[in-house]
């Protein structure tokens, strides 16, 4: 058994009426904007990070899902969790938490999450690992890192009160998934949640190679992403809906083949809803 999400067993700012009203308004505005951008086929975004413009590859410079500013604004990061939870009909947390089993059972001391986004999955993992475990969260968006930091702070505060221990914050690193700033064999486990479907074919291979490089021999890589054709045949007719939402590479390559070329051996493979673990 694993702990519930931290904001379900303790009262937090997320459950306040003000935040619920704020997130509802944000989602409604985002939905209207998303549908309008989809109708106009408006995929370009403005980059506001002028300090490190060369850090962002070309494939990143698009409004994925036709969402506000792609991944490159605080407005995008602020509404992301509400949007994805609504898109998944209230099942987003449950879908992500299917990856907890193999990750927690591996008893890792050092974990890296590649493309951590707003940090929701990070809180699930950290809440079920030993207090002295080390967690590195890599993402390319500084704005999503801000949201991840807020989630991590709130989760640590609640768990710290329970255990009366000081818990070190997660290490947040802005970097490309295909160029991880980690040493060879540095971590015991790698977590990857919903990244590959947004990467070009050649970049997927580079990211898989990096995951293989940084995890120790015999370590664990937990890979979760959208279903590909054939994973759940009943859903095959609906996969094209993702392409209509500016997901141009979602059905291009079987993920398991890419991972196998890097020497990964599958010890668990299962489909749940519209994702593959």
Structure description:
The protein has 277 residues and is α/β, with parallel strands linked by helices. It has helices spanning 6-9, 17-40, 74-87, 92-97, 100-105, 120-126, 142-163, 201-214, 240-244, 255-261; strands at 110-114, 134-139, 171-174, 187-193, 215-226, 271-272, 275-276. A seven-stranded mixed beta sheet has the order 3-2-1-4-5-7-6. Helix 7 links the parallel strand 2 (134-139) and strand 3 (171-174). It is globular.
Coarse morphology? globular
The major sheet is characterized as: 7 strands, mixed
Could you tell me the radius of gyration in angstroms? 18 Å
- The residue fraction in helices comes out at 25-40%
- Stretches where pLDDT falls below 50 for ≥5 residues? none
Strand order of the largest sheet: 3-2-1-4-5-7-6
What is the overall number of helices?
A: 10
**Overall pLDDT metric:** 84
Secondary structure: number of strands: 7
Structural class: alpha/beta
Short overview:
This protein has 277 residues and is of the alpha/beta class. The chain has helices spanning 6-9, 17-40, 74-87, 92-97, 100-105, 120-126, 142-163, 201-214, 240-244, 255-261, and strands spanning 110-114, 134-139, 171-174, 187-193, 215-226, 271-272, 275-276.
